C-alpha cells in the first residue's frame, strides 16, 4: 500500500488530510483526475500520472472489501 500512496501524493501534490478522505467515487480514470476536499472544506481537482494510476488500480483490485475509502489502514471483518 505504501508505494501507491506515495506515488499518488508525489503525482498530485495532495496533502495527507486530502488523501485520507479520498473515496473511490472521486476518481475519474478516463482523465486520471480526482476530486479532493482540502483546507476550508474546499474541493479541488488534481491530476495524477500513469505510474500512480497503475499502482492505484493494482492496490484497489487486490482489496477484498467494499469500503468506499481509497486508502484504509485496517480492514475489519464484515458482519
UniProtKB/TrEMBL annotation:
SUPFAM superfamilies: DNA breaking-rejoining enzymes (SSF56349). Keywords: DNA recombination. Signal peptide: none annotated. Transmembrane segments: none annotated. It comes from the Bacteria. Residues 1-79 form the Tyr recombinase domain. Gene3D superfamilies: Intergrase catalytic core. This is Site-specific recombinase XerD.
Amino acid at each position: 500500500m505504501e508505494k501507491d500512496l506515495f506515488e499518488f501524493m508525489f503525482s498530485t501534490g495532495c496533502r495527507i488530510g486530502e488523501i485520507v478522505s479520498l473515496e473511490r467515487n472521486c476518481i475519474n480514470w478516463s482523465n486520471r483526475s480526482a476530486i479532493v476536499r482540502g483546507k476550508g472544506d474546499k474541493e479541488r481537482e488534481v491530476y495524477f500520472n500513469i505510474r500512480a494510476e497503475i499502482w492505484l488500480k493494482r492496490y484497489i483490485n487486490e482489496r477484498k472489501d467494499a469500503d468506499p475509502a481509497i486508502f484504509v489502514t485496517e480492514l475489519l471483518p464484515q458482519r
